[in-house]
Amino acid sequence: MTTQEEQTRAGLQFPTGFAFGAATSAYQIEGAVDEDGRGVSIWDTFTKTPGRVLNGDNADVAIDHYHRYREDVRIMAELGLSAYRFSVSWPRIQPDGSGRINQKGLDFYKRLTDELRGHGIDPWLTLYHWDLPQALEDRGGWPNRDTAYCFADYAATVHEALKDHVHTFSTVNEPWCTAFLGYASGEHAPGRREPENAIRGAHHLNLAHGLSVQAMGARRVGGCVNLYAITPATASEADQDAARRIDGLQNRFFLDALMTGRYPQDVLDDLGMDLSFIRDGDMATIKAPIDLLLVNYYSRFTVSGAPGGRASAAAAPTDTGSPWVGSEHVSFVNGGRPVTAMGWEIDRSGLLEVLSRVARDYPGIPMVVSENGAAFDDVLEHGRVHDAERVDYLDAHLRACRDAIDAGVPLEGYFAWSLMDNFEWAWGYGKRFGLVHVDFETQRRVLKDSALWYSEIIRQNRRHEQTDS
């Protein structure tokens, strides 16, 4: 290439220090579910329940990252990643969810973070990515207020053990999914369909975030939300109201709580339930100051208040209820955009929209795109995976990030989801999001074309940083 590497692939040049990373989660990659003192999680139980996961898949082995982490870190280094976002398995640290600490669990994450730092990769640690210890679920799970306090104790333990290894901690990944897919629709573990308990769980997840921020007192702590751009299907009053409702429960319920210490009154009115579980002082705790906001973005929702559409944004692989507590009548319609293998519409403009909205409505908070990616029907042929659709997806969304920065959004990094193909929750091994192809039988890793493309973007940006310095 010539001319400043063709202007870094025609516009994909980012400010000095911008973090280029990839993300994973513990349950989806680690395996080793009964090794070195790890306890049982709700996902262990869920996957062993017939009919819950496509093809009866489970993550007992997953992609064996627990044993292969050194190989996986070498792949990250080969790609040139500057940061890696991973989660800690709560039942690996506290098998019963409280009380006794499993030192072997902490030692694994010390080895992992040392390996990352040894390759010049900054570890970004997420405390919770959906694998609640089963012992806590047996005591009521997230609808039980005590779970939030147990989480704060767990967070303090992990922070104390790893604060010299990790400089960026985040608390709860996508609390919407835990609360509403786990306790309302039943699509995710623990598979309960109890709408009022889903709202209790959502509040206690927010409370757990605030309590853990206070407990850690770390130098750099963030909250993580999954945000969607929401479009009404038509200009009708019913569709406009549907968009308000879904935006309220998906986006504002969590953003307003974390950033302003309030729940949106219109959302509380939509719910129309006893909210006495929200106690005095809770909202001030939830608003505990954070250093950055982690934003996960995948798609845009187009919604209607008229009957006849889908009850959710993407069909689940098994029969489920509605996650939209108080707005079960809202349906999701196709907005006419291309879709991924998950059925999720591809819309880069939605990413620019949500980043700009956060910067406008909650000014002053630095952000990173902590998950962004797509599943496609990848095929390994002759040792290569030519995933041109994923390259196009990543290219488009990185351009949206660049546009956001140009518009003044304080965006500091981008993490592709996912580093590797892995266990995709209720879809089992049926959907592939990775930059790296994994043969689930042999555990062989192969870089897809998207990984090579992303690596080249990183390399060009690093070269420009060195030239400018």
UniProtKB/TrEMBL annotation:
It catalyses: Hydrolysis of terminal, non-reducing beta-D-glucosyl residues with release of beta-D-glucose. The active site is at E371 (nucleophile). The keyword Hydrolase applies. Its EC number is 3.2.1.21. GO terms for molecular function: beta-glucosidase activity. InterPro entries: GH_1_N_CS, Glyco_hydro_1, Glyco_hydro_1_AS, Glyco_hydro_1_beta-glucosidase. The keyword Cell division does not apply. Keywords: Carbohydrate metabolism, Cellulose degradation, Glycosidase, Hydrolase, Polysaccharide degradation. Belongs to the glycosyl hydrolase 1 family. This is Beta-glucosidase.
